[in-house]
Target: Alkaline/neutral invertase
Amino acid sequence: MREVFYRAYWIKGCTPLNVGLRLNVMVVYLCFPKVLLFYNSRKMVNASFAIPVSEFAELKIDTNYDSSNLEQKTKLRHIERHKSCGVSKAILSDGCGGQPCHRNQTLEEDAAWDALKKSIVYFRGKPIGTVAAIDKSQGELNYDQVFMRDFVPSALAFLMKGEPLIVKNFLVETARLQSREKTVDLFKLGQGVMPASFKVHHSDPTKKTEILLADFGEIAIGRVAPVDSGLWWIFLLNAYTSYTVDKSLADTPDCQNAMCLILKLWLSEGFDTSPALLCADGCSMIDRRMGIYGYPIEIQALFFMALRCALRLLKGSGNDFVSQILKRIKALRYHLHSYYWLDFQRLNDIYRYKTEEYSETALNKFNVIPESIPDWIFDFMPSRGGYFIGNVSPARMDFRWFCLGNFIAILSSLATGEQAEAILDLVEGRWEELIGQMPLKICYPAMENQEWQIVTGCDPKNTRWSYHNGGSWPVLLWLLVAVSVKLGRPHIGRNALELMEQRLAKDDFPEYYDGRAGRYVGKQARKFQTWSVAGYLVAKMLLDDPTKIGIVSLPEDGDIREPVLKRSNSFP
Ligand code: GLC
Model:
């Protein structure tokens, strides 16, 4: 640790801004040792990424395996749909009368399925995931890897199509990767960390041997451990279990163990005074510096979702986590409802806040100075509608709208029924800003000029209205469609989908679009970005068959579990 400090925090020739930032980070390191692993460790020693080969068993590739045969090899199962998915009755009168639509596949869908199939990655003859993008025209970087978060829409598309095998393989292999020892410089990361991505490596092409190489943040740009990966893993295990109506995978010791390791790490105690999870900038889908360090809604909503999914899946010794999870869910819900929810009325209250309040009865608990409220929010906030703001921490409210956090809040039922409706009201009311010509804005608004310089560190990829800084991401469509289906307002999702269909396939499924209205294919966007393809297909299938919403959505009151009877209860 001493070495890391000396190398990373020795201040020499720094600007005052740099010094301030470095000192801030140092204070966080000193005060929150338990969250150390979530923070950027500046890598000063040039250690190359090399996992000792001895850690892997090397197997011969099954040469009899015909990769084009996935559909034949995967047993199509007739699945009885869950009735508890909370699909509103209103959709019964919509589109196909509440029944799955049987219609011919469009050209766009054909192109999308084709692209999705091409993206499948095989490991020792088995399909185990999908690459991030297949764009031969661009330098590879790490887009040839299977990303945990990127695979989620692919997995949902495969499940909805009746092909659960690839999802099962992915869950099993990533649980294995989790058990590896991971270090950054001289520091060992928590055991529960799940990889951001992995790839199949042919260690010896002549012998046809394959191993998996994973990245836990130790080689990623910025060196951030992905806080979202473990949460997505639990979400996916629940989606798989809901769809197959088969708990046997979740019940295996490997899956139970993986879940417990994630929970142990994510629920570990620290110096926090709030139930929200403390994170480094760039530890989620937005994986570059964007001023979302601290307690970003993107992670808090996903955390809430994963905790609720875990409650459904834990068994045996995993039940030890149940009471801890129940308490955390309750506190997290209270915290996010009290301090993150913003509507016209609350904005007006904050605008009139008094400052420097001390004591438990303080109204302005985080000492937010009203002058720090940005101008744009007063115009953006409709009189009908509301949303969870981006982040709350001492003297800081990040009022930006973040798409993923708000939609996961609806799907996980973190948002009350009323709040969920209000979020969709906001999307409808601010259609031009949030949907524009290509759905959907990852966050709103974009940072410009000096704010962009300071907050992003002059990131040329995140210039205003591009990429993570107010860019438009087709992958997010599946979330909009899912929430609109859940709330019985599918026309909202359908309108967005129709907009997207005019261009997405013609533009070769770009990763993101640029511009205030999302009219331009992103400056550095990869083409044939797999989650743009999969997100579109999931959206399409959800609109065709709204009963599929149960795979990704949790009903409002699902946390009640029978008390776990321990031996001591029955034998005092
Ligand atoms: C970019 C995105 C990240 C994604 C990765 C692979 O880095 O910001 O969310 O997982 O590309 O597509």
Q: What stands out?
A: The CA atoms of residues 410 and 416 lie 8 Å apart. The chain is about 40% helix and 10% strand. The two ends are 47 Å apart (CA to CA).
